Amino acid sequence: MGRPRTPLLDRERITTAALELVDAQGEFSVPQIARRLGVQTGSLYHHVDGRDGIVELLRERVTEAIDAGTLDLRPWDAAMAAWARSYRAAFAAHPRAIPLLMTNPVRAPRVLEHYERAVTLLLDAGFGTADVMPVIIALENMVLGSALDLAAPEAMWEIADVSATPRLAEALAALGDSRTDRSFDLALEGFLAHARRTLEARGSASG
Question: Boundaries of each HTH tetR-type domain copy (predicted)?
């Protein structure tokens, strides 16, 4: 038999299979991917560097949906806000991947390029080197938490006895629609306000 026109295995197919498993069950194993693709487990190791390599392929795949061009916007806070929204949307599409990706160090070159651009943006805006990563990490914590919130049930609080928690019941009734979007907007506004104060304090100190 001749070789198939389309290879049974490549990194794209492996990534797609892994992401489908993660979306369905929050985890994957190399043998599961092999079974899904109809190949021997050992065949996968000719294309990827084990489980950690697949995790980085997943990180690259999810991150592809983030619009890195947002980091070219000016002023810096408009860029960070736009990046945060795009980042949130990308990970909200695959919320079950978040715990998996957060427990592995970031190694994927294309993902590291995003961080390089974000660091450059903040340094060019006048942030001190020691302030840059706390700002980026704080933004990520907010974004990923909100991405998980988007995947949560709309009704996260179930009150059987309103008389036991009347204030909570009243507040929930007043919440209305777009709970996650309103909460994200509030967190983003607070984050940017604090980042601006950090930058202003640095300018005052240097002046």
Answer: 8-66
